[in-house]
Amino acid sequence: MDTDKVALFGASGPIGHSIVKALREQGRAYRVVGRSRASLQSQFGADPKAEIATWNPDAPDTIRAAARGIRTLIYMVGVDYWRFQLHPELMRRTVDAAIAEGVERVVLIGTVYPYGRPRTTPVTEDHPREPHTFKGRMRKEQEDILLAADAAGKLRATILRLPDFYGPGIDKSFLHSAFVAAAQGKRAQLIGPIDPPHEYVYVPDVGPTVTALMDAPGAYGRWWNLAGAGVTSQRKLVEEIYAQAGHLAKFMTAGKGMLRLIGLFNPFMREMVEMHYLLTEPVLMDDSALHKLLGSVRKTPYSEGIRQTLEATRASLVSPAPAATGRPHPAP
């Protein structure tokens, strides 16, 4: 086993690319794991530090092969928003394979879904996990499988919870429509309400935090919150996006009723309805424990994150490139 090698399961998403960038900057070897070798080759093949491995989540032998010889496994595997029942089963298969192959550490990139409706503001890691949605229950089940393996001493596990995110090439952030519309001087289509407090993490900041967390001996056996760059609102950020683009903000807002209507034809929007509470009862996280553990956590100010994302959006409109896709709620 390579004593430092890292495997990224679900590497093709935006968080995966951010972690890969951090690993490259540290000169560390890594393995990217996904279903399509051709896709992984096009994204990571030019890096001599990258090793490409494919897996079929329905074939346990391929999961074991993807985890073989790895010390740390970072798990970011997404499923269709309407197939969340797959999350616990995929985690169970991955944990079984990791244990069988002697993987020492597993890092799960998690969400706020298991917390359910917030009882406090902000939410610390002591907040109970009482999900009231199907997606929250599936994510909690996924976490419980991993944490049980840690408690049994079979591997070390930790979870990093992210809020909503945005950044260059993230085409399914709540803010993506605003970046594209502002760059074109057009009207954005938003999911509202847009005035309640909210927070966003800038995706390029996630990679350095994940690599620091996975190397911290005290990180394991629990979960950690990573808050955004401060409490803001969709309206404030959209107005800033348009201001930096040199336009007055123009937008239309779709509420829960409109989501239901659109959902008759769009399965993703249909599944968004049960998570709409995150816009009306936002989960705002306290990440002081993470700061204490790591010493510092990189947080790009919203104004700078908007500048860089807007610059990338304009470039993509001139010369379109494949986006680093991600759903409005991180790694669902």
If you had to describe this structure to a student in words, what would you say it looks like?
Residues 8-218 form the NAD-dependent epimerase/dehydratase domain. The longest helix is centred in the middle third of the chain and has 18 residues, at 134-151. The protein contains 13 helices and eleven strands. Helix 1 (14-25) crosses helix 7, helix 4 packs parallel to helix 5 (134-151) and helix 8 packs across helix 13. 40% of the residues lie in helices and 14% in strands. It is an alpha/beta fold and 332 residues long. The strands form three sheets. The protein has a seven-stranded parallel sheet with strand order 3-2-1-4-5-6-10, sandwiched between helices. Strands 7-9 form a two-stranded parallel sheet. It has a two-stranded parallel sheet with strand order 8-11.
How are the SSEs placed, and which strands pair?
Elements: E1 6-9, H1 14-25, E2 30-34, H2 37-44, E3 50-54, H3 60-67, E4 72-75, H4 86-100, E5 105-110, H5 134-151, E6 156-161, E7 164-166, H6 176-184, E8 188-191, E9 200-202, H7 206-215, E10 222-225, H8 234-245, E11 251-254, H9 256-263, H10 267-272, H11 277-280, H12 288-294, H13 302-318
Parallel strand pairs: 1-2, 1-4, 2-3, 4-5, 5-6, 6-10, 7-9, 8-11
Helix pairs in contact: 1-7, 3-4, 4-5, 6-8, 6-13, 8-13
